Each structure stands twice: as C-alpha cells, then as structure tokens.
Amino acid sequence: MTVRCPSCGRHDQWPQPELGCGCGAVLRIPVRPAPTLPARGTEPAGSVPGASALSPADEGPGGPGGHRAPRSPLRSGSPHSRDAQASPEGASPDGRGSPGTTASCTPPARPPFRPLTIRTARDAVTAAALYLKWLGFRDIFQSPEHPASGIDLRARGLVAQVDPRTEPSTLRDVECLWLHGLNASAVSVFFSLTGYAPEARARAEDLGLPLFVMDLTGTPQPANRAADELIGTGA
C-alpha cells in the first residue's frame, strides 16, 4: 500500500525490505494476540470449535468479522519503544528486583574478563572486541581503521561502534549506529572512551541500545539499563 511519511512527506510503497524511510522513520505494525482456544469438550452447544467472539471494537466497517485498518502504522522514531508494563510482584521500579527475590536473568558463568590496556584508538577497538567475545559473541570481525560506516566491529547478529574521541559521543552517533543495526537485523552496541552527551543517553534509553564507557585499562562499564541487561543475558 502507499503510505505518506509524517516526517518528510514522502509517498512510497510499504513495506520496504528495511521497513523504513530515508529520513529515519520506520513502519511499526500493530500485532493482535491470538485468541485463546477453549479446552476440548468445553465449547457451548452449537458452537464451532476454535471460534471466538468478536467484540464491537473488533468489528470492521463490513460488519462482524471485518478487519479494522490500523491507526497510523507509520511512526517516527524507534520501533523498539517500550510500552509501559506493570512490574512483577516483588520487583522494584527499575526492574532489578528487590532483596529476597530471584532475578529474571541469571548471568551465565564466565571466567573473569581480562582487559587490554588502551594506548591507541586501535587498542580501544581490540579491547571492545575482547569484551564482546567474553559476552558470548563469536567470529567478531574488525573493520579497517576509521571505516566510513562508523561500524568498527561486526559478528553474527551484532554491530558495534567504538568512539575513541576526547569529546562525548553525540545523539547523531547513537542514532546512526541504531539505524545500521536495524538494517542488519542485529544488536547494536556502543563503546565510548569519554562518555555520552545527555541527549545521546536519553535516545539510547528509548531505543534500548546498550552503552558502555571504557577507561584506559580497557574494562568497559555499563552506562545504561540495556547494557546491564546485555551483561546479564550475554549473546
């Protein structure tokens, strides 16, 4: 179908392979959960096994059983924006659980991480590669120095950028990395030696993009919740 992008006004056929527009807007398709089937033998007399009743909200313009068009499927920003969810009983608002409760993700058993001292920009990339391997990613490929794409490390299901500059990484840096990960259907991970601008941190939080800060000892430290979760679950 033809959809107008609300950000740049472009009219084009959707979905495209990347489900996105050149301006950065992406297509988010609403998904309705499948109806729960009644247990065998519990259907009312005269009913069709597996059939479920439609509420008035489910009835489209064509009457019962019709399909209602989704509202504004084209959204600007991240398709990974998290809806508000109720915290499980006993969990704290930050999702890490309260004392006496069991964490939802048990960190996998790993040997202690052995960092690489950082003396050059290339050392920073190598240290990040070692850390990702420690997390469980395999066959990590290092791009040539200063790649035009900004992607320093690649693996199956992974793209990573390492920023060795002396100023904080920017909002544009975070968004460009996220778009590369979206295009490759991969996890995006950012490493910075200096940290992140406040707007870059906020955007990474919205996108669920893990941020790490590295010191000169070569030991990455998580800088947001997504990074904590990646450490907990591994690759």
UniProtKB/TrEMBL annotation:
It comes from the Bacteria. It comes from Streptomyces candidus. This is Restriction endonuclease type IV Mrr domain-containing protein. Residues 34-115 are annotated as: Disordered.
